[in-house]
Amino acid sequence: MTTMLTKPNDPQPQEWLASDLSLGNVASYKPFTFVDGEGVRCSLYVSGCKFACPGCYNKVAQNFRYGSPYTQALEDQIIADLAQPYVQGLTLLGGEPFLNTQVCLQLCRRVRAEFGHTKDIWSWTGYKWDELLVESQDKLDLLDLLDILVDGRFLEAEKDLTLQFRGSANQRIIDVPASLEAGEVKIWANLKR
Ligand code: SF4
């Protein structure tokens, strides 16, 4: 007997909008982590995602109501933590950062204002690169602020726990500025596997 694998949801372009969906909630904040990208990082997990990937690593955070509101005090704490010289940058995860752009844009703009490009910004997303390019302006604005995007749904059929920073082989670690400039996906130069 074969087991049917269910698939994540596939949105139409601009079908899902943060302005309709996000409640501005945060599932958790983890300062000084080593697993959410290169170097020591501060990770913000926003609440709410509609991809509903079977096997999602953070199912509770698919709910937009989960967690607690993003606050100015939390933002100030993140900025203070990022200021530590051994911290390489900020990571956005979820949930879906691109369906919580109110929170993510505010934070990323502050990071750029305070640190310029001395701290990098990574984000995970369930959207594929090409899907994001035809998405709503808030998503494009967030993409513009990133250094690295890990793209695509988590697909159980392509699950591979040996990959760097991603759970399935379809997902890519994308150099965002290089890709925007080239007009095609450019993979992160430090990729090992
Ligand atoms: S895109 Fe990420 S957070 Fe959303 S359901 Fe899939 S694995 Fe979970």
UniProtKB/TrEMBL annotation:
Its cofactor is [4Fe-4S] cluster. It is an enzyme of class 1 (oxidoreductase). The keyword Disulfide bond does not apply. Keywords: 4Fe-4S, Iron, Iron-sulfur, Metal-binding, Oxidoreductase, S-adenosyl-L-methionine. It comes from the Bacteria. Belongs to the organic radical-activating enzymes family. This is Anaerobic ribonucleoside-triphosphate reductase-activating protein.
